[in-house]
Write a structure and sequence with these properties.
- The complex is a heterodimer.
- Chain A is α+β, with helices and mostly antiparallel strands.
- Chain A has helices spanning 6-17, 24-35, 41-54, 80-97, 101-109; strands at 57-64, 72-78.
- Chain A has a single domain, classed as Winged helix-like DNA-binding domain superfamily/Winged helix DNA-binding domain (Arc Repressor Mutant, subunit A).
- Chain A is built from five helices and two strands.
- In chain A, strands 1-2 form a two-stranded antiparallel ribbon.
- In chain A, strand 1 (57-64) and strand 2 form a beta hairpin.
- The longest helix of chain A is centred in the last third of the chain and has 18 residues, at 80-97.
- The radius of gyration of chain A is 17 Å and the shape is elongated.
- Chain B is built from 29 helices and 24 strands.
- The chains are: A alpha+beta, B alpha+beta.
- Chains A and B meet through helix 2, helix 3 and strand 2 of A and helix 2 and helix 3 of B.
Chain lengths: 110, 878
């Protein structure tokens, strides 16, 4: 079983949070909002491309809009595989953090 | 705000499109422009532009990562399939690689040789500022000579009068002499008397001694390392005394030279300070003489001086010093500057300091080098496209699976590049292994220029890369254009125009091969013509001994020669002996001006002179046209008689040989009666015209003694040596054989011929590989036709003939192309010889036949195979 990397996790979660409205512009905004770091479109496209190849995402074309110079938005949605991958990752996180409340409490204190 | 204003910066947009062409076509720039507009509305246009640009530029890095990653995956696949293909088609790959590497190696080797020839004298520090003075003399507006030597005063006056002349040096060739150190005696013939400025003009290096003062004092000599070892062994020669027996000089060694680089047009063993020589001359003659031209004069111009501008001043200079005298004689003198580095290849004057190279041959070889490269590249195209036939299926499958045309082109170009790289490696190996052999063959160490210039290799590399890319592109275009459906069905007929292109290329290839081959044949024919030409004298079975001049006592010298002559005749193997000053095959430095009684002093004619004995014409079997030979009975012969050659009869305008007898020839106060006229013979090679020549009896100390012997007798040389030792004591016994000596004049032509034959063989080899490739292709295309023909009852031999016939067609077409070119080029080369053959049709036909036979043999390798196949097999083939 493969686990997602942090970047992939962030990207997938961002798309999940955006529900139906996930296209590169909104995804980028969301990611910036979540991570508080700037993301370049080039990187974003690459990652989206990779995720799509891995089968976690699928894309569909929306209607063309005038503010995009007549180009249609491309919406991204999580596939079943994507959702199960996220779930796996969450479970994995939980399993490796299990029983280390003490540490997390100490970390919080600091 | 209008719509146009909302467009993001165009260049950035274009850049983005380029980047995303392969991977993100579907996402493209829509997202960015959406953000762009938002930002523009909030913060204004400039900010938005800036933002857009940063986005684009920052996207470059991830894009590069992405594409490199993707590229390596394809790359791995390319390498894998390429090597698989090479393995699977072993013979094809071998032909391809072999043809290309042999072609490239030949090209590089020739270019290296050319480079070596062009590198002469480039090792001198200011080579581009050094010039030799060439002197042309005209009489009655007719050129009398072009001379490499000039008057001794010229150098001095040039330096005095022209500020742009930095320095000058004169070299006086000292032909021969016997040199002794303690008990060691050798005959030397490579000496110059030179000015002390020698080392400030030329950059020959001294291993010991002081460069600045080595040649200042009289009786100083500088020798080469080789000579130092010969006389002194391991001892330090500086300060030792060498005795020059011929001139009776005690020479102090003041320096040792590193051996003269091979690419130096001057070659010498000893250089002696010119003031040593001056002691024997009438005082001041070296500073003022405008009559005695025996001095090689080199000048070095100041940096920045324009040689053309300087040369333009020389006519006035001549006018000032010699104008009156020249006009009185109706003569004209021209000084020309020869750039030092041009002397080796482009100077063929009288009295050159050594055998020079042939610039024409070098240009010719350069052309051949590129022709061979072209052949090799054409070969590569032909073989690669021929293979496309076998590869058609692969292409079809790749296309069906979804390869783009551009991907296929990339792949096949890549495959071609891999083949090229392998060939290049093989080519490097070939060059390095062959180079020592070539150096040996040419007697020149070419490897010295191997790594002396990066630019040479960059140039070669660029030529190869450009050539190979061009050639790789064509087959890959052909391949990628196959249509998948028809290919998989087996219908892989390519376009007719494609085949015509390939046949055209093959025709060019054959035209080149025939051209080079016929040139080779003609070169050899000319060589053969020259070596077997009746030069008018018989040099066979003739042993020549160099007469050592070890004293200035002429009586002693003469008596010694006479004793030797008398004694040698006691040997029964020796049928005759003669002594002379000049010898056929050696350049004669004795030239003098004479007139007849009918001529005025101003009409004097230059003529070579030779001093001989009674037996000279008999020994060399020279025909006497009129009059008689010198006779022992007629006592006046030794001072009052002269024998002239046929050309001299014409030059002195006597009319016929018979009319010349009894006439007088005058020089100064001396007068000689013509007693005989001999037939012309070629004193020098056939490259030179026959010059007027006058023969006097025993006027000078002979330089050579020629013995007619029976060479078959092996003990003869020892016998002669014994007699020599009795007469000459320890003096060096140097001998050579006259015919070898004479033919050595053709050594450059001989080398040229050898090189040419090697490379014409290689060209043929590569061309045959080409025809093999094409025949495979054509036969492959016609497998079905052959099957049907056989099924209908045609015999194997008829089919073989049919297939062969087609190729013969364009070999003949190739002839039409190559014949005129060959004719023009060879005529040009042959014009360099005074006596030459005409580029004849016979050797041309012969070369055509050779090419034809070779190619038919090559083709039949495939055609026979194809025609023997059972028709069932060939018909089932699809």
């Amino acid at each position: 079983m493969k686990y997602l990397t942090l970047n992939e996790e962030v990207l997938l979660l961002a798309i999940l949070r955006l529900k139906g409205d996930a296209y590169p512009v909104s995804i980028r905004e969301k990611v910036i909002e979540m991570t508080e770091k700037d993301v370049v479109y080039g990187t974003l496209y690459n990652s989206l491309d990779q995720l799509q190849k891995k089968g976690y995402l699928r894309s569909e074309k929306g209607d063309p809009t005038p503010e995009r110079g007549g180009k249609s938005k491309i919406y991204f949605k999580l596939t079943e595989r994507g959702i199960s991958a996220l779930r796996n990752t969450v479970e994995f996180h939980e399993s490796i953090w299990e029983g280390i409340d003490e540490l997390s409490a100490r970390l919080k204190k600091n | 705000m209008n719509n146009m204003g909302k467009r993001p910066p165009r260049i950035a947009e274009w850049l983005l499109r380029r980047m995303t062409y392969y991977n993100h076509k579907f996402l493209c720039s829509g997202d960015l422009s959406e953000d762009y507009i938002q930002i523009m509305e909030k913060y204004g246009r400039v900010n938005a532009c800036f933002w857009y640009w940063t986005q684009v530029i920052r996207s470059l890095i991830p894009y590069l990562f992405y594409s490199v990653n993707r590229g390596t995956i394809m790359f791995k696949n390319y390498i894998k399939t390429t090597f698989r293909n090479i393995r699977r088609h072993k013979s094809f790959s071998l032909f391809n690689i072999l043809g290309l590497s042999v072609g490239m190696a030949s090209c590089i080797l020739i270019l290296l040789y050319v480079r070596f020839e062009k590198s002469y004298d480039s090792f001198h520090k200011d080579a581009d500022r050094i010039f030799r003075i060439r002197m042309d003399r005209y009489h009655n507006n007719e050129k009398v000579f072009e001379s490499a030597v000039t008057y001794p005063a010229v150098g001095i006056e040039l330096k005095n009068e022209f500020p742009e002349v930095d320095e000058f040096v004169r070299l006086y060739p000292h032909i021969q002499g016997v040199v002794r150190y303690e008990e060691k005696l050798f005959s030397e013939n490579n000496m110059f008397y030179v000015d002390s400025s020698f080392f400030s003009i030329f950059s020959y290096k001294l291993t010991s001694g002081d460069v600045n003062n080595a040649l200042n004092k009289p009786n100083s000599v500088v020798i080469t390392e080789e000579i130092a070892r010969k006389y002194f062994g391991d001892k330090d020669p500086v300060g030792e005394i060498l005795i020059h027996e011929s001139a009776n000089l005690n020479l102090t060694v003041t320096g040792v030279l590193e051996n003269i680089p091979e690419n130096s047009h001057l070659d010498f063993d000893f250089i002696i300070s010119i003031n040593t020589f001056e002691q024997f001359l009438q005082p001041g003659i070296l500073q003022t003489s405008w009559g005695w031209y025996d001095f090689y004069t080199y000048i070095k111009l100041k940096p920045g001086a324009d040689p053309d501008y300087f040369q333009a001043k020389l006519p006035d200079f001549i006018e000032k010093h010699d104008g009156e005298r020249l006009r009185a004689r109706n003569a004209r003198l021209v000084f020309l500057l020869q750039p030092l580095q041009n002397i080796h290849l482009n100077s063929d004057l009288s009295w050159e300091a050594g055998v020079n190279g042939n610039g024409k041959a070098v240009t010719f070889l350069t052309i051949v080098a590129y022709l061979i490269l072209i052949i090799a590249l054409i070969n590569f195209v032909n073989l690669s496209t021929a293979r496309s036939f076998e590869k058609a299926r692969e292409v079809g499958i790749r296309k069906v699976i979804g390869a783009f045309k551009s991907q296929l082109i990339n792949y096949y170009i890549f495959e071609a590049i891999i083949l090229c790289v392998i060939s290049m490696i093989l080519c490097a190996v070939l060059v390095l292994t062959i180079l020592p052999y070539l150096s040996e063959l040419l007697n020149k160490d070419i490897s010295t220029v191997l790594f002396d210039s990066v630019f040479f290799w960059i140039r070669i590399f660029l030529i190869f890369v450009i050539g190979m890319t061009a050639t790789a592109y064509y087959p890959s275009m052909i391949l990628s254009s196959f249509r998948p459906v028809s290919v998989i069905k087996g219908l892989n007929k390519t376009s007719k125009s494609g085949l015509i292109t390939r046949k055209g290329l093959l025709t060019v290839q054959f035209a080149i091969s025939i051209f080079i081959l016929s040139c080779t044949l003609i070169i050899f024919k000319q060589l053969d013509y020259m070596t077997n030409f009746d030069i008018g004298l018989d040099l066979e079975q003739t042993m020549v001994i160099v007469n050592p001049v070890d004293t200035d006592d002429s009586e002693l010298l003469n008596s010694r020669v006479n004793t030797f002559k008398e004694n040698i005749l006691s040997l029964h193997e020796v049928s005759g002996i003669t002594s002379s000053v000049g010898f056929p095959g050696s350049e004669n430095f004795w030239i003098w001006s004479f007139r007849t009684e009918g001529m005025t002093e101003d009409d004097r004619v230059n003529s070579y002179i030779n001093s001989i004995d009674y037996d000279y014409f008999d020994i060399f079997n020279i025909e006497i046209l009129a009059g008689r030979n010198f006779s022992r009975e007629i006592i006046t012969d030794d001072s009052l008689s002269v024998i002239i050659n046929r050309t001299a009869v014409d030059v002195f305008q006597f009319g016929s040989p018979g009319e010349a007898i009894g006439k007088y020839i005058t020089s100064g106060d001396n007068k000689w009666r013509i007693v005989g006229v001999i037939n012309d013979y070629y004193d020098l090679s056939l490259k030179n015209q026959v010059e007027p020549n006058l023969f006097f009896l025993n006027r000078m100390i002979p330089g050579y003694m020629a013995l007619k012997i029976n060479i078959g007798d092996s003990g003869i040389i020892d016998d002669v040596r014994n007699i020599w030792d009795n007469c000459y004591g320890a003096l060096p016994f140097d001998f050579f054989f006259a015919d070898e000596h004479y033919n050595r004049q053709y050594i450059n032509e001989q080398k040229f011929g050898e090189i040419f034959s090697i490379f014409s063989f290689l060209t043929l080899f590569v061309a045959c590989l080409g025809i093999l490739g094409l025949s495979t292709y054509v036969i492959g295309q016609r497998t079905k036709e052959i099957g049907i023909r056989k099924a209908l009852g045609s015999s194997s031999s008829r089919i073989g003939l049919l297939l062969t016939g087609e190729f013969t067609g364009f070999i003949i077409a190739a002839n039409i192309l190559s014949y005129p070119v060959m004719h023009i080029v060879m005529n040009k080369w042959l014009q360099g010889f005074a006596r030459h053959i005409d580029p004849d049709f016979g050797s041309y036909i012969l070369s055509v036949l050779i090419v034809l036979v070779l190619s038919i043999l090559t083709i039949s390798y495939k055609t026979v195979k194809a025609s023997l196949v059972n028709p069932v097999v060939s018909l089932r083939y699809e």
